[in-house]
Amino acid sequence: MKKYILITLFGLISSLYSCSQENKIYNDKIEYPYVALEKRQDTILQNMNKLEKSMTNNEVLKLLSLPDEINPTYPPDKTAKKAIGYSYVYIIERKQETGSQIEKSEKLIRIHFDLNGILLSAYAIEIPEFNEIYL
Hints:
Blueprint: H1 2-17, E1 34-35, H2 38-47, H3 57-64, E2 69-73, E3 85-94, H4 101-104, E4 107-114, E5 119-125
Antiparallel strand pairs: 1-3, 2-3, 3-4, 4-5
């Protein structure tokens, strides 16, 4: 079972790295300004506080559905070129695709995983009822 999960994860990550390097968008058809459909918002907001540290990426997908973005995570050392994990981003609202957090005026949840697909941490922007998960 672990081997299957690792192979699946490797395939997912490999396909994502073949996308543009700036932002790994799972749904590249997002039009801005973006507001998630009501059903999607309900799924995310009703299940977000069921997330737990050490969950697998598959368990997160079952709770929240597919993410809007999947991005590589790098260590704080700016010279590092090798990803140490990845994050799922669930967007509720975003005014524009690029710019500062204020310019984007976004409302989202970001969930960080290690390279084995284990949840390490999670935080939200402009969703005060989210219970953050710390490293």
